[in-house]
Amino acid sequence: MGIKDIALRERIIFALDVDNGADALTFVDLLGDTIGYYKIGLQLFLAEGFDLVERIRERGGKGHKIMLDLKFLDIPQTTGLAMREAAKRGVEMATIHAHVGSVCHAAVAQAGQTKVLGVTVMTSYGETELAELGYPGTIEDLVVARAGIALAAGCGGIVASAREAALLRHTYGDDFVIVTPGIRPASLGSHMGNDDQHRVMTPGRAIAAGADHLVVGRPISRAEKPVEVAQAMLREVEEALG
Known about the structure:
The chain is of the alpha/beta class. The chain is about 45% helix and about 15% strand.
């Protein structure tokens, strides 16, 4: 497995799971010397829009990067035009649901320099949710199938849990990034809190399995000392890479 040239401070993508720009920027100011990548999800984007993207970029002098996590899913033309707007604002990565090849193709065609990430199966899904969807196979089967749709369409990366990372590397190789939510610090040990996530893993194990970027929110944001937790997680990442 090849190791990509990604700065250590960009290995963790901090999830700005707050409802306003002021709180988001407070976290960016607090973590900005440690973490250089930030995720803007649906709630925060609806509250603040693209203006917050620029404000985060302006924070500090290290060039913070943005993952826009809106998980586009619509007809191909609408999805492509939405991705074009994201690309205009210079976000480094943006997500779509990797369900239909034509939709993925349309997004990639309009993405410019923005890396399109195909979301496979949400990390909050377990076997119960899969049964509700009426899918007869395993989660691993569905992740591999949807990753194949995204990569065939030209997506530059996949969003999947770290539990499927090694399988994705074995199946499709190294020429794409894997972004993994559901990351919990090793320091929590057997008491690792999963919140609403079913498929979780520690930072070191996720990197060793083949993940490139780790999306982390609550384990850092709810910690008494967020910076120290972030630094400890990055040390785990560095050891795994070493």
